[in-house]
Amino acid sequence: MPYKDIAKELIILMGFAVIAAFTINYFSPNGIALFGQWDTSQGVITAKPKNDPVADSFEIKDANTAKEIYDSGKAVFVDARSYEAFIDGHIKNAVSIPTNQFFEFIDSFKTKYPLTIPVITYCSGRECNDSHELAQYLIGEGYANVKVFIDGYQQWERKGYPVEQ
Amino acid sequence: MFIRWLIGITFIYASYHKIVEPAHFAKIIYGYYLFPECIINLTAIILPYLELLSGVALILGIYPRSALLILESMLFIFIVALSINLIRGHNFDCGCFSFGERGYGYSVLGLLVRDVIYFILGLQSLFFNKHRKWCILQSGCILKNI
Q1: Which terminus of chain A has a smaller tally of CB atoms within 10 A, N or C?
Q2: Cβ of residue A26 closer than 8 Å to a chain B Cβ
Q3: Which of the four pLDDT bands, split at 50, 70 and 90, describes residue B104?
Q4: What confidence tier does B131 reach under pLDDT thresholds 50, 70, 90?
Q5: How far is B124 from chain A (nearest CA, A)?
Q6: DSSP per residue over chain B, as a string?
Q7: Which of B23, B38, B46 sits opposite A17 (nearest CB)?
Q8: Fold of A40-164
Q9: A 37-76 near B (Cβ less than 8 A)
């Protein structure tokens, strides 16, 4: 077998691919970091792209804190999952704004909730970042007090906190 | 030549959305629950360009046997990864041609069958030991130079 020739060809082809990959990733606005955050015990998973919506400063990292805010009755909880998932079950009294349908839902939300109200977004848990994206969208609309409950609906339900369908 | 072009075009098409949205592709690699955390981003950065460049090389006939060897290796890894997830009943988005919004456009078994067909076609081309048509850099087959 022509091992040497094949090895030479592979080095040339793979070399070009690797150089192109790192160069374009470096300059692309959609480029990602060389190492992401894939440990759910550390927070929401993310590939750390340049326009990363995941920001630690917004995060509520445990269900108990989220429940305290919920019990205070001062904040509105917003479900970032699909509308079908929301219908299947959601935090009691939460409002649905699916992240990928934000602009269809935001007008009615804004008529009901003033920009000063504290908003807590959530999705299914630490393996989704829809709640972070939604938080960024809401901040862009002028909501000043937005937090993300990163453990999401699954953990809330597991804890036996109030849910509804 | 038909098989070369079929595989080449397929992989070029498959690389497009991965190149455009590497962060999303990285999440899909994570979703397989098979790969160590430290290689997820690196794989998401490099793999789409390996697909693209090998696909282009295959169509243009630049070192076609080595381009095929790269793509066949990828297909083999996909087949193994899909099989493991099929056996353990883990649903996931394969991210092969597009990113499903919620779930899985194809059944895992369907994906597996498709990849196996491509793999067998690729093997046939890899061992093709005659002159290849429309090649810029003719190299031969896996067993001998031409």
Answers
A1: C
A2: no
A3: very low
A4: confident
A5: 17
A6: -HHHHHHHHHHHHHHHHHHH-HHHHHHHHHHTS-S-HHHHHHHHHHHHHHHHHHHHHHHHTBSHHHHHHHHHHHHHHHHHHHHHHHHTT------SSS--SSS-SS-HHHHHHHHHHHHHHHHHHHT--SPPSS-SB--B-SS-B-
A7: B46
A8: Oxidized Rhodanese; domain 1 (3.40.250)
A9: 38-39, 45-49, 52
Q: Say what the pTM is.
A: 0.80
Tell me what pLDDT residue B33 has: 87
Q: What is the pLDDT of residues B39-55, one digit of tens each?
A: 999 999 999 999 999 99
Of B22, B137, B47, whose CA–CA distance to A17 is shortest?
B47
| Contact call for A6 and B46, based on CB within 8 A | no
Kindly state whether A9 is in contact with chain B, defined as any CB-CB distance less than 8 angstroms.
Answer: yes
Q: Per-domain residue ranges for chain A? A: 1-31, 40-164
Which of A5, A30, A36 is opposite residue B139, by nearest beta carbon? A5
Q: Are A134 and A80 in contact (CB under 8 A)?
A: yes
Q: In B, which residues are within 8 Å of A127 by CB distance? A: 30
- CA B49 – CA B44 distance, rounded (Å): 9
Q: Does B131 touch chain A (CB under 8 A)?
A: no
Is the Cβ of A144 closer than 8 Å to some Cβ of chain B?
Answer: no
Q: Write out pLDDT tens, residues A79-106.
A: 999 999 999 999 999 999 999 899 999 9
User: In terms of C-beta density within 10 A (0-12 exposed, 13-18 middle, 19 or more buried), how is residue B102 classed?
Assistant: exposed
ipTM more than 0.85? no
